[in-house]
Amino acid sequence: MEKQNLKKEYTNGEVTVVWQNAKCIHSGICFKGLPQVFDPRRRPWISILGADTQKIIDQVKRCPSGALSYYMNGKKNKDGTT
Question: How many domains does the chain have?
Fold first, then answer.
């Protein structure tokens, strides 16, 4: 059975973290590296105000599956998306 592809966004006003459940392999790297932000026992499981923007970005970049990504609010990516 294929996972439903949910996409959720969490923002602190400066950065927005995007989570796509269908890509998640549940490695736990996010939780182990920054538990004050990423905690699968909480709902919502991402508490975007739990750390500063740079720490969040650094941790999101460690996601091995690409289930977590981010964009800076108000800035466009190279492909023209925000």
Answer: 1
pLDDT tens per residue across span 30-75: 999 999 999 999 999 999 999 999 999 999 999 999 999 999 998 6
Question: What are the CA-CA distances from residue 81 to residues 65, 67, 71, 74, 78 (Å)?
Answer: 21, 18, 9, 10, 7
Give the CATH number, domain containing residue 54: 3.30.70.20
Q: Can you give the pLDDT at residue 74?
A: 85
Which three-class secondary structure string do you get for 11-65?
ECCCEEEEEEHHHCCCCCHHHHHCCCCECCCCCCCECHHHCCHHHHHHHHCCCCC
